Structures
1.
Amino acid sequence: MPAFNPVDIIISKRDGQVLSPERIHALVAAYTKADVPDYQMSAFLMAAMLRGMDESEAFALTRAMLHSGVVLDLSDVPGIKVDKHSTGGVGDKVSLILAPLVAACGVPVPMISGRGLGHSGGTLDKLEAIPGFRTDLSIDVYRRQIKELGVVMIGQTAEIAPADRKLYALRDVTGTVEFIPFIAASIMSKKLAEGIDALVLDVKCGAGAFMKTDAEARRLAETLVSIGEQFGKHTVALLTEMSTPLGKAIGNGPETAEAIRCLHGEEVPDLMDVTYALAGEMLWLGGAAGSPDAGIEQARAAIASGVALEKFAALVTAQGGDSSVVYYPDRLDTPPAVEVRAPDDLRGHVAHIDALSLGWTSVKMGAGRMRKEDLVDPAAGIVLNKKPGDPVSPGEVLARLHTQKQDELPVFRDAVARAFTCTEDPISPASRLLDRFSDGQWANP
């Protein structure tokens, strides 16, 4: 049998042809086995991005990537397994609250997450800010824990969607990251491999998100939901705003501490509005609530009663972490805080806080990575003292910085202060919840 030759596929896509599922599968399988070199796959990625891929091709690409590795079967785990995926943003620590919250209400949550890259933080880095917490569990341990505890949070293993690992790294260096069919196939191949029965998507929109415009975010949400439904998984997407940081904390340790305080019942309105909305959808899809609204009420009760906090403590213990930080989040080690005060020309009411700017500032402070192999400082980050709608006078504290890079503090202080915009008139913060996509239609077309 002659060796697989990808040139015909590259030429076909270069010329704008729609590729059959068989050709896409053959290309992905050959690349995963290293039978196709990076330079040829790079040519294909660029051709596809420039010429486009239709819905059938996006679905075929997802299927090929999904079946490049192990697809877990959790049918022996009682209940409807539901997960959530966020497209990423600044201050997005929702998963740390959401997974134990939903599990505490009786819906199993098998969650495979990623690390931060660029200005957007990652769930694994936040969890690993807890001393001892392990995210590198084997598939056997993953399967056992979801059965016994009802929740597990790990990183992508070598067995799950290996094609995505290779393609993601290649997309990152070939300028093909932003292409929606590639984004959708990357997300869904990993999520579908988890063994889930249903999925809720948090598709973020705005300057601090990867999808900057409303139209891009909606198109991505529609593509993701379509793929999920074609695989027989009930899938819902919420469109949420990400121009201003979510919550008050930015950075792994600070965000983890904030998430734990929310599990204790501390109110951070924008963060918890998004968390409760996603929880309502997950509990509805998981059969624990008759509607998303009923699910929200259950979730609120689980926070108020403390059962969500106890589930998180059990999760931390099960994965080797120090559960004392669940009850005393201040124990998460942080460098001494440095205050950022409002300059003389900043007065009135906070109208906007630039999420993208603060995301990159936190990275430079040590909270993120520019390359996948970079180490992060779990204690580094920014904690906001003012949020949109709050009054501000010159000299008031805008934020507190945590960083080991003391020599660069003047630069960090200036960058954080410049991220704030004020208006004279009082304002009411806009809702983070923009829209909902399910069963082929938007709730607010």
2.
Amino acid sequence: MTVPADRLVMNDISKNFAGVRALRQVSLSARPGEVLALMGENGAGKSTLLKILAGAHSPDAGTISIDDAPATFRSPRDAHAAGVRIIYQEPEIIPHVSVAENVYVGELPRRGRYFDRRRLNAQLRDALARYGFDLDPTELGSRLSPAQRQLVEIMRALIADVRVIAFDEPTSSLSDVEVDALFRLIRRLRDDGITVLYVSHRLPEIFRIADRVTVLRDGAVVGTRTTAETNDDELVAMMVGRDLTGMFRRQPHAPGEVTLRVEHLSTDDVDDISFDVRAGEVVGLAGLVGAGRSELAHAIVGDMPARSGQVIVDGQPVRLRSPRDAIRAGIGFAPEERKAQALLMHRSVRDNISLAVLGRISVAHVVRRREEGRIARRFVDRLAVRTPSLEQVVANLSGGNQQKVVLARWLARRPKVLILDEPTRGVDVGAKAEIYDVINELAAEGIAIVVISSELPEILTLADRVLVMQAGRIAGELSRDDASEESILALAMKEAA
């Protein structure tokens, strides 16, 4: 059988940022009809490499070729013209226009002087049906869930004449059903001869969808393996350069008294929710995308109005008119969308950590900078946040270290209850293990913790008990001993069949 020539070749790509070497002579190649996975810890250089391929950055050295033709991408427009598209982890959505307008932005069909909305919606419905997706073309971008925003980005790429398409952590906000649909799509693209680059931290996905894996560490290629001839242990060792054996097992602690009690809580999205969490206990909140897990968390922290019910902390009912009331009651919250909802991306590590304790470290509304720095340094050291200084802008940190900054903020506040929504979303395997260790330590200190996660292995690793949500209600509860992927999915889908 004749092996097709390489479609994409990136040769000796190097890139520096302000003296920091992001990429060091990175070389890789991918053939038509192949899925090449890119793996590595946060900060390994994957995002920089994709941005160079997308035309968002120019390499300091090295060359790119597409189908044996040299390619120079001075802008994303050049990359698009060459048939290269990148699906980023954080989708770029225009909030106040429809899904159809978001997908066909810049290419709207016209009828005379006006664009043809009916034709536009029909085009998108046909395209969605062709690839097996279900999305309302008329829905506003501002109303889309993270999973739906990801699908808009994917459809944007698919309507173009792509030759190379790269997916950057595409499943981080997708349900298992949506992941299956995405993988069917990727296999179809591969069968159609399109070259697919697939960036993910999730090892099971890599073995399920990729033909080969290229691993980066510290800005350089460590090696490339055929998925059929490697295993989890080898890839993890290549990525992190250290042994992670045993780092993923949480040691349960004997729980104390009930710290958080939720009684008959109802909002526009959840109905009659009741549960409790004890001091030192980790309760996992599982369910399919759209089950109401995040909406429940936002209601508990006062970010979403409740129609009925109450939240009780240490036996005292909390009047939740805003997140400030929840914070005063001792509830901390790390939301799923850390960049949009948790972090001040263009402020420093110091500023982000001290945000929840400004009242405690201020005199006459003036922040005591020395005390602020002492607190920030304490928790940067405790959580091993990798940052050159406390003054580093948070946007320049890796995803795992950004998440640690969010956790550091709440540790500085010393909460009684901590709600973590997708705490390791977009985080590499090494940082994930470190965050698990932090959660374990916080539980040991007596904090009541709620973990919301779409990754069932994560729920099973962390939780003492699992609450499964379906259609805005709690469908059932499982003990640590009774919880399994099968039992959780059975509850999550029992009324959805």
3.
Amino acid sequence: MMIGPTKLDVIHKPVLIREVRRAFNLDNLALLKKALRDVPRYIDATLGLGGHSLEIVKSGRFVLGIDDDEAMLEVAKIRLEKACSALNRKNEECFKLIQGNFRKIEEISGSLGHDLFLGIIFDLGVSTPQLTSDTRGFSFADPDAALDMRLSPKTQSVAASDLLNSLRSDQLEEMFGKVLDRKHSQRLAKRIIDYRSLRKIEKVGDFLGIIKGDSIKKELHPATLPFLALRIATNTELANLQETLPKAFSLLKKGGRLAVISFHSGEDRIVKSFFKSIKSQAIIISKSPIRPQADEIKDNPRARSAKMRVLERL
């Protein structure tokens, strides 16, 4: 699905923009006057529509943007080209975009040579256009959509529906146990096994019918957490995050900063554990996770669950 660039600001709002600018000291305008060879380099490992990368480019830095989703890359490219043009620079002086998974961050960054980076950001989760796509099945808004959930259908062979139709009961319990308690995970796994004994699970509506009204948290739609667990498993998000954080840290120069924005406890636990494991090599800038301020949550309710942790390499 292609998204019109004129509607981007309405469709998606990147979270914690002010806090990211502070974490990376992006308001140092003196960098705009430096020669290209002196421009600090950053990595946006989860480019999306380029919201955070825009801030980096507009502040005179260079950004390497990585994303699995080809449609996101196309839109981000248009936005970054405009920002680069406003600085009277060529695109290659401002950014480079590469399609791929951030677990290959070392290999991808090697395309720029072997110099280290001053900042790396991960904004985990799924962007609003992906959630509202009528073809991807990330959201439970359209019951007739295929239950796919792959960030990159070209490179990923296993869709969300494949997992629900093939995993054993204990594997289903483990998958949903990433975000649900044991009782709800067991109950949902049994419902899936019973349902698929009669027919295949193919559409969003099929999964919604299995979930029914089994609400876990009163403030959430009953399907919110089961859909989250299924998306995480389809894209191996937690395993990828655990694998890539040490790689990202190794790409930072002395004084370089790593910022990770997470949206659920499974992600945050991994980030917190990694930060703790390298505390002898880094300064933890955020002793407690940085949360959105009230005005941002009011303007963008999706930001309410965001947490950012920041460290600086010694």
